[in-house]
Specification:
With about 220 residues, this protein is an all-alpha fold. The chain contains 11 helices and 2 strands. This is Pentatricopeptide repeat-containing protein 2, mitochondrial.
């Protein structure tokens, strides 16, 4: 199943790369799709392509949505490019979303800033818990990663367990994985999945399109 999906993602990415090589202007949603596909492929090459597309977009003054940036951050983290992930995350204008909340925790975990993680969770439990105020929500999967990191530090694990209980009581924990949160499609968005069925070879070079982009 994964093999088939990987081929589909690769084919869609190749179409997007050819569009870029032919100077077709990307929309905000096109960048979301491109970065999302790169994230799903999760390879050194897809990370390189994502980085090139992002840097070109910024040089041209094009707008990259928070959603696109989150995919880029997640891909960088998966490729152990923590400094790059931190740089991209710091440029997100409005990081107040469930995706950003959980990516921020993963960033701090990979930087081994465990006390900062505990402080983030503490602030989330001590904020205004009125039902009319949007509260930070944490993925159960991400919280499990936190516990795994602090388990050998008695003082921190005790604090974490206390905060974990408070987050559950206040309804600030979701069973959705970080991947599910990242890939959630907001209502009303048009699907671009037709790209999965498009051609997979450049008409100009008759070479894989990834090679065409990286050669330019």
């Amino acid at each position: 199943m994964w093999s088939w999906l990987k081929m589909s993602f690769t084919g869609a990415l190749e179409v997007l790369i050819e569009m870029k090589n032919q100077d077709v202007k990307f929309t905000i949603d096109t960048y979301v799709l491109a970065f999302g596909i790169c994230y799903k492929l999760n390879s050194p090459e897809s990370f390189k392509i994502c980085t090139i597309l992002r840097e070109e977009a910024l040089l041209k003054g094009e707008i990259l949505s928070r959603r696109a940036s989150c995919f880029a951050v997640a891909l960088a983290l998966n490729q152990n490019e923590v400094a790059k992930a931190m740089s991209i995350f710091s440029q997100i204008m409005d990081p107040e979303s469930i995706t950003c909340t959980n990516l921020n925790i993963i960033l701090h975990i990979q930087l081994n800033m465990l006390e900062n993680v505990i402080e983030i969770l503490k602030n989330a439990t001590e904020g205004n818990l009125s039902k009319y105020v949007k509260r930070q929500v944490f993925s159960e999967e991400v919280l499990a990663k936190v516990r795994e990191k602090v388990k050998d530090v008695p003082a921190l694990v005790a604090k974490f367990d206390e905060l974990y209980g408070k987050l559950h009581v206040s309804g600030q924990v979701t069973t959705y994985s970080l991947d599910a949160v990242l890939c959630h499609i907001p209502g009303g968005r048009k699907s671009h999945m037709f790209l999965l069925n498009k051609r997979m070879v450049s008409r100009r070079t008759f070479q894989p399109l990834g090679q065409s982009l990286l050669a330019e």
